Amino acid sequence: MKVRFHPVFDNPIRMGYVPGWSSINDLIERLGDLEHAVGEGRVVPARWEPYYQECPSCRHAGSYRWAERQLQSPAHFAQALALFPGEEEQLTSRIGHANWLILSTRTEASNITRKLMLDEALGEWECHATDWLEQIVERCTALGVETSKPLLHQQVQQALQPLAKEDVPPDNGDFNLSDLPSGFKRSHGFEKELLQMDGWTVNPGLVILPVDGRTHSLTRQVLRLDLSKVVLLRARKSARAVSWEKVTLVHLFEGAVTFEITDEPPLIVAGYKHPEQILKIVQQCYKAATERVLQALAIKLNGPTS
Predict the structure, then answer these.
(1) Which stretches of the chain are assigned E, i.e. beta strand?
(2) Residue 228's closest CA among 210, 198, 204?
(3) pLDDT tens figures, 165-198
(4) Where among 149, 164, 179 does a domain terminate?
(5) Is residue 123 located within the same domain as residue 22?
(6) Burial level of 250, CB count in 10 A (0-12/13-18/19+)?
(7) Total-model pTM
(8) For position 301, what pLDDT does the model report?
(9) What total of structural domains would you count in the chain?
(10) 180 φ/ψ angles, rounded to the nearest 5 degrees
(11) Could you list the residue range(s) of the whole structural domain that residue 279 is in?
C-alpha cells in the first residue's frame, strides 16, 4: 500500500512536536509515545498538534513510525524543520507565515482562495527563503545535523514542487478507511439501542491527550480515554488505569485535571497548556461512558430492546 504524506500537513516535526524540545530525541520519544498510545488499528484526531485549528489531522500508529524514520534522517529532519512554521512568534517572518498559509489551505473551502493562498506561500519561498534557511542551517548545526543552505533549498523546492504543479489535490481532512490496512477501526459513535433515544452522548471513540504544557511536556505523560477506562501512560508504561464505573467526578483542582475515584486516591494529571479545554473533552468522555454503563444496566435488568 502506497501512502502519500504532505510535506507541510504531515510534517514529522509537527506530528512529534513537544513544547520546549531541545533535541531530535525529544521529538522521536514523543512520536513513539503517541504510536504506543494510539495502538494498532486505530485512527484518532491529533488535537495536540500545533495549528490543529488551521489544519486538523487524523493519525494512526503507522504515520508515527513513518515520522520517526524521517527524523532519524539528517536530510529529512532539516527539510521538516524548514517547512515547519515554528512557534507563534515565528509567524511574523515571511517564510514562517508562508508555511502557516500552506497549513491553512486544508480548511479553506474556496478553491480560488486556496489557490491564491498557495501561490502567495510559494512566492514567498521563491523570493525570501535566504534568511530563513540560514537560521535553519544554524539550528541544525546546533542539533548535530549537517546540511547546507544550497542543499536544503534544493530539498525544499523538490518537496514543494508537487504543490506548485497541483499534483497534490486539496485535502479536505477526511480519512478514507478503504486506504488503510484491514483491522483499522474508527468509531462513529452509534449503538443500535442509542439510536432510538434522543439526548445520548455520541461515542467519542479513542481519545489521546498528551500533556503539553511547556514545563511538563517532556515528562512523557499521555491520557488515553475510551468508553471503558481512563489510563495515564508515562513513558509508554501504564502509570494508572481506572474504569469509568469508579469515577465519581472529573474537575480541575489547582489547574490539574482531577478524577475523583471511589475508595481510591484521586488521579491527578497536571501540566496541560489549556486545562479547561482538556477538562471539557474528558467530561464528554465521562458522560458518554456513564450513559453506556446505565444502558448496559438497563438491558441487564429489562432485557435488550428490539
Answers:
(1) 44-45, 58-59, 207-210, 221-225, 229-234, 237-243, 247-253, 256-261, 264-269
(2) 204
(3) 754 444 444 444 334 444 444 443 334 444 445 5
(4) 164
(5) yes
(6) buried
(7) 0.85
(8) 78
(9) 2
(10) -100, 160
(11) 187-302
